[in-house]
Design brief:
Shape: globular
Cofactor: Zn(2+)
Number of strands: 5
Order of helices and strands: HEEHHEEEHHHHHH
Largest sheet: 3 strands, mixed
Keywords: Hydrolase, Metal-binding, Metalloprotease, Protease, Zinc
Strand order of the largest sheet: 3-5-4
Pfam families: Peptidase_M48 (PF01435)
Number of domains: 1
Family: Belongs to the peptidase M48 family.
Number of helices: 9
Structural class: mainly alpha
Protein name: M48 family metallopeptidase
Helix content: 40-55%
Length: 264
């Protein structure tokens, strides 16, 4: 083994020992090399770029509706250690999607409202995206990429200042393409974990957890010829529905009433 490669490998191993021990909200062991504050900085930078490139909805009713659902979920979301406030922006786009970034940045595309047809179904999506942040899936994915590439200067990472390769890697870790308007899927493990976290949040907020199943039935219809699960980083719609139905059976009855969010 070349001396330089050996030094990089040894350094990576030391970083892993010092930084790598973490546990997700579901109790899954995680490998994390990047601090929460660093991930929050990356999320804030990406969100600022996204707001420059994407059209922001000015429809007051749509914004009020999305904010109403999101606020109910955030009321039952545990405080996050690396930021104080969440920010919600509705993007005027036909994309059937939503996302949440480290630093508490939530984006919802208006096209999603054609598939998430009720407040409860929207809560399932937004709760799922909040779950990605709560479980630090971005930090986990960036850390795995950094370790694989021997990139140890974690403290100096910044978008646009770390080279094209690292920038691509960081953006992918956040769930975004280099063109930040392009959303990238997380792994099946991350997606399934966020489903469970989001289900718990929507139940705690008083939304109907059974509507998460209806949401994914709608998604299955909307996606038409979706690829088989083996070829996709997302769980198949069938697997997702089965897992959610099983988890719903284990949920305690909610003691909270969801707000009356008026769909535009």
């Amino acid at each position: 083994m070349p001396l330089l490669h050996a030094k990089i490998t040894t350094a990576a191993a030391l970083v892993a020992l010092l930084v790598g021990c973490s546990t997700s909200p579901t109790g899954r062991n995680q490998f994390i090399m990047v601090s929460g504050s660093e991930m929050a900085t990356l999320g804030n930078q990406s969100f600022a770029e996204l707001k420059k490139e994407e059209k922001i909805s000015k429809n007051k009713r749509t914004n009020a509706y999305v904010q109403c659902v999101t606020d109910a979920l955030l009321t039952v979301t545990p405080p996050q250690p690396d930021f104080e406030k969440w920010e919600v922006v509705v993007f005027d786009s036909d994309q059937v999607n939503a996302f949440a970034l480290p630093g508490g940045k939530i984006g919802v595309y208006t096209g999603l409202l054609d598939v998430a047809q009720t407040p409860d179904q929207l809560a399932a999506v937004v709760g799922h995206e909040i779950g990605h942040v709560m479980a630090n899936h971005g930090g986990e994915r960036v850390s795995s990429s950094l370790a694989a590439n021997g990139a140890l200067q974690v403290a100096n990472i910044a978008l646009g200042a770390s080279g094209t390769d690292n920038q691509n890697m960081i953006m992918a870790g956040l769930g975004l393409g280099l063109n930040v308007g392009v959303l990238l899927p997380f792994s099946r493990t991350h997606e399934s974990e966020s489903d469970l976290i989001g289900l718990q949040l929507m139940n705690d907020a008083g939304f109907d957890p059974q509507q998460s199943v209806e949401l994914w039935r709608n998604m299955a219809k909307a996606s038409g010829g979706a690829p088989p699960e083996f070829f996709s980083s997302h769980p198949s719609h069938t697997t997702r529905i089965e897992d959610l139905q099983a988890a719903i059976q284990r949920l305690p009855p909610s003691t909270t009433n969801a707000p009356k969010c008026v769909r535009p």
